[in-house]
């Protein structure tokens, strides 16, 4: 476990505060008490068929399933034999109700413009774009890469793919051309959807320029659709590139939703693992739909009167599940914001909360820590009385940040749901239910319905209260990943081959005497930087691609705002000398290779990397060094002088 984990455990072990949901909140909530939670939880475990059937029946199926679950470890099929369409459930289902005129998306652009799409409008746009996709030759099962900023058309593109049974692969707009090309190629994408540029901190993110560079190396991509957003000049390649608005002009708004099997592939989403190669996590239709629908319903207790805002980017799973699919399946009104939280000033988020009277607000601990740093006045100058529920996701929240969120943002009125889950789990797994669960700052609390987590050792033995171990999930759940695209072996090994008969999360955690889960962080070579998942191996392979770098080792060091910062130890090829210019150049190089979020915070030169006799890089030692602590055990060092020199360069 990483160096920061020890500190975290120490601080969390002392956390004894408990906050019970306000009685007025519980009275209105779907799950009003711990008794109710326990009763439903027990049913979900003892009689999962009836629990999941009842909830799945709230959604539309063209054909009902024959069997709720078919489990052949490690492959699950949910709602077997059922036929549905998730886009139909997010849109068409609401059109026969009063919700047809309800706001589906309230969007705010970074420069300040605002657009509202009613369910009717969103449905119309999605149908038209679905016809555009068909006219470009996209068929059921084809992969479509989407490389866009946070604009309503991103939601339109995603839902249009789902409507016709095409598989979307959304690539976060901050990724480099290299990373986009890798994902296009791995997915065998036929089409890329992008935009001229997006707004971020008053500047244009040149998405089309990056897409063009990626397309040079993406032989499977035949065509590219370009949305005009910023309006700046971009080159358009005849026969390959098409303007969104021109294609939409002639497109019919009639398009029946494709009836797909419950296990039809819905999307791929690439995420970092312990190797240098990102993995395409596969999510399918029926189970994912039910999982995101049910968690949104109970965890956010979302109502028709709510204005719900999740600040994530749709480039990550949080945006897929809790901006698009979960909330829209529930018929919610979703706020969507294009830009940065501190543009034009650090009050922007709170100004948006006030402007749209946001009632449910879901964000990341890293953002909360940034707001603490920017100063309370940016928060308190706005009227936040519309807020009734707060949420966090992406990384462990330190109790101090939790308390600030609770008092300064929530005015001690709003329950906080600290939701633990992953790209792979598709939906929230460990979480408070806001009207029922007493919360403890820093704990994601208890499992959601149908989820059986455990804390175990390598052999899979359950550990006792407050013993730190591996967080695993003992049973399949509806929204679980169905595999890694093109790499079943990696799926089987990585997730099901670590601890016998358990899904391995990669997180370390403990369970306290009340059964509450406390997530301690990753136990593998995965970093969590500002809630972004990064693989040390992936950054290392980017580093060694630089002409000056001979060898590299990447570790995390605790960072007040980002949770973890990226520290790269590099050895240079003979002819190169360490310099701060070179360090800068190497940092920028990683940014070009992967994306800005992966850029190392520190580059530290070493004459050689400390290795064990068997040649393994001693990461723990590097982590200690990066964190500025004296190194621990060094008896297995092959070359003591290396450590000495590293320490000297530190002084
Ligand atoms: C990893 C998954 C799930 C959407 C965003 C991240 C960490 C996530 C929490 C939480 C402590 C958390 C874990 C997990 N994580 N939520 N509430 N408390 N840690 O998705 O990129 O797939 O990363 O994020 O380490 O394994 P992701």
**Average residue pLDDT:** 94
For the record, the CATH class of the largest domain is: Alpha Beta
Ligand kinds: 5'-O-[(S)-butoxy(hydroxy)phosphoryl]adenosine
Separation of termini?
26 Å
Helix percent reads 25-40%
- Strands of the widest sheet, in order across it, are 12-11-8-6-7-14-15-23
DSSP strand content: 15-25%
Given the structure, what is the number of helices?
A: 22
Contiguous runs where pLDDT drops below 50 for at least 5 residues: 634-638
Largest sheet, described in full?
8 strands, mixed
Radius of gyration: 24 Å
* Tally of discrete structural domains: 3
- The secondary-structure class comes to alpha/beta
What is the CATH homology-level superfamily of the largest domain?
Answer: ANL, N-terminal domain
The tally of beta strands, per DSSP, is 30
Annotated CATH architecture of the largest domain: 3-Layer(aba) Sandwich
CATH topology of the largest domain: Rossmann fold
Oligomer: single chain
Spell out the blueprint of helices and strands.
Blueprint: H1 3-13, H2 23-28, H3 34-46, H4 48-56, E1 67-72, E2 75-80, E3 83-84, H5 86-90, H6 92-95, E4 103-108, E5 114-118, H7 119-135, E6 143-147, H8 152-164, E7 167-170, H9 177-187, E8 191-195, E9 198-200, E10 203-205, H10 207-215, E11 223-227, E12 241-243, H11 244-249, E13 260-261, E14 265-271, E15 279-284, H12 286-299, E16 307-310, H13 317-329, E17 333-337, H14 348-356, E18 360-363, H15 365-374, H16 377-380, E19 389-393, H17 399-409, E20 416-419, E21 453-456, E22 469-473, E23 483-484, H18 488-496, E24 503-511, E25 517-522, E26 526-529, E27 532-535, H19 536-544, E28 549-559, E29 563-572, H20 580-593, E30 602-605, H21 619-626, H22 640-650
Parallel strand pairs: 4-17, 6-7, 6-8, 7-14, 8-11, 11-12, 16-17, 16-18, 18-19, 19-20, 29-30
Antiparallel strand pairs: 1-2, 3-13, 4-5, 9-10, 14-15, 15-23, 21-22, 22-24, 24-25, 26-27, 28-29
Helix pairs in contact: 3-4, 7-8, 9-10, 12-13, 15-17
Bound molecules: 5'-O-[(S)-butoxy(hydroxy)phosphoryl]adenosine.
């Amino acid at each position: 476990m990483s160096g920061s984990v020890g500190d975290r455990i120490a601080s969390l072990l002392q956390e004894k505060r408990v906050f019970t949901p306000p009685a007025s909140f519980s009275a209105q909530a779907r799950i009003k008490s711990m008794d109710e939670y326990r009763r439903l939880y027990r049913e979900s475990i003892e009689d999962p068929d009836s629990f999941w059937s009842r909830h799945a029946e709230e959604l539309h199926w063209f054909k009902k399933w024959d069997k709720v679950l078919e489990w052949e470890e490690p492959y699950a099929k949910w709602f077997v034999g059922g036929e549905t369409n998730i886009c139909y459930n997010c849109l068409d289902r609401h059109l026969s109700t009063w919700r047809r005129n309800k706001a589906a998306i309230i969007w705010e652009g970074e420069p300040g413009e605002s657009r509202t799409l009613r369910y009717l409008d969103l449905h119309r746009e999605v149908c038209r774009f679905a016809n555009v996709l068909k006219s470009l030759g996209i068929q059921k099962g084809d992969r479509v890469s989407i490389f866009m900023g946070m604009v309503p058309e991103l939601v339109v593109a995603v839902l249009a793919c789902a409507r016709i049974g095409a598989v979307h692969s959304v690539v976060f707009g901050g990724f480099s051309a290299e990373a986009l090309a890798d994902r296009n190629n791995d997915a065998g994408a036929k089409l890329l959807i992008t935009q001229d540029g997006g707004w971020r901190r008053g500047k244009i993110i040149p998405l089309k320029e990056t897409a063009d560079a990626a397309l040079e190396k993406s032989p499977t991509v035949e065509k590219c659709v370009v949305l005009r957003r910023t309006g700046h000049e971009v080159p358009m390649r005849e026969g390959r590139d098409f303007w969104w608005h021109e294609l939409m002009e002639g497109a019919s708004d009639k398009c029946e939703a494709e009836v797909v099997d419950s296990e039809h592939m819905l999307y791929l989403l690439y995420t970092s693992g312990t190797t240098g190669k990102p993995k395409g996590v596969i999510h399918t239709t029926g189970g994912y739909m039910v999982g995101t629908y049910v968690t949104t319903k109970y965890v956010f207790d979302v109502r028709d009167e709510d204005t719900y805002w999740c600040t994530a980017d749709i480039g990550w799973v949080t945006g897929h599940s809790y901006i698009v699919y979960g909330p829209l399946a529930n018929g919610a009104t979703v706020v969507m914001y294009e830009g940065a939280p501190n543009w034009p000033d650090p009050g922007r988020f709170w100004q948006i909360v006030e402007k749209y009277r946001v009632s449910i607000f879901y964000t990341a601990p890293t953002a909360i820590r940034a707001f603490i740093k920017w100063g309370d006045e940016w928060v308190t100058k706005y009227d936040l009385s519309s807020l009734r529920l707060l949420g966090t996701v992406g990384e462990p929240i330190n109790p101090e940040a939790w308390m600030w969120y609770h008092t300064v943002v929530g005015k001690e009125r709003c329950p906080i749901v600290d939701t633990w889950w992953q790209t792979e789990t598709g939906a929230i797994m460990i979480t408070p239910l806001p009207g029922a669960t007493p919360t403890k700052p820093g704990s994601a609390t208890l499992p959601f319905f149908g989820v059986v987590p455990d804390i175990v050792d390598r052999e899979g033995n359950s550990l006792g209260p407050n013993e730190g171990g591996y967080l695993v999930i003992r049973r399949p759940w509806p929204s679980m990943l169905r595999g890694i695209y093109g790499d079943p072996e990696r799926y089987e090994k990585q997730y099901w081959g670590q601890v016998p008969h358990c899904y391995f999360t990669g997180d370390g955690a403990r369970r306290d005497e009340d059964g509450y889960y406390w997530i301690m962080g990753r136990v593998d070579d995965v970093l969590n930087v500002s809630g972004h998942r990064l693989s040390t191996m992936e950054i290392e392979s980017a580093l060694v691609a630089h002409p000056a770098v001979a060898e590299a080792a990447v570790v995390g060091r605790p960072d007040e705002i980002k949770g973890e910062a990226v520290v790269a130890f590099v050895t240079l090829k003979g002819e190169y000398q360490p310099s701060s210019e070179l360090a800068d150049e190497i940092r920028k190089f990683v940014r070009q290779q992967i994306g800005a979020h992966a850029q190392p915070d520190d580059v530290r030169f070493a004459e050689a990397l400390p290795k064990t006799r068997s040649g393994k890089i001693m990461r723990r030692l590097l982590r200690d060094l990066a964190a500025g602590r004296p190194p621990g055990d060094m008896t297995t060092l092959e070359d003591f002088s290396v450590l000495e020199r590293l320490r000297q360069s530190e002084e």
